[in-house]
Fold this protein.
Amino acid sequence: MAMRKSLSKLLRLVAFVSTCMLLTSCAESSNSNDWKVVSTLHSPKGEYVATVYTISGGGAAGWCEQRIEITSRNKPFDLERTKKEANFCFSASCGSKLQVIWKSETSLRIKYTIDDAGVSIYQRRIAPGLPVRIDYDTE
């Protein structure tokens, strides 16, 4: 009888440890997104910079998003800070083609495409904390 109780306890412990390991590996994989800077474009006088970057993850099911963040020359783009603060002004699914055009020192135009699958977007009219106005066009 004592041996049966010991075996039962051992099996419960193995099940508990296995569950913890599975949950930990799932949590780690969800935080392992891939962040990449795609391009940077300086405003005409160089005071501001528009940075296009992508974030992807999700394993086999996968997802991908493009973002644009505008920063000043005094506080340049920093990918590690961006991961924490998320001060982007535009995002679109990666199926969309983006074009970034500075119209003036404080005016930016973002063009994006919408394909047959559609596009998921987020837009701000002004860059966070900066005097840069943003206009949008679809192609």
User: Anything to note?
Assistant: The chain has a mean pLDDT of 84.
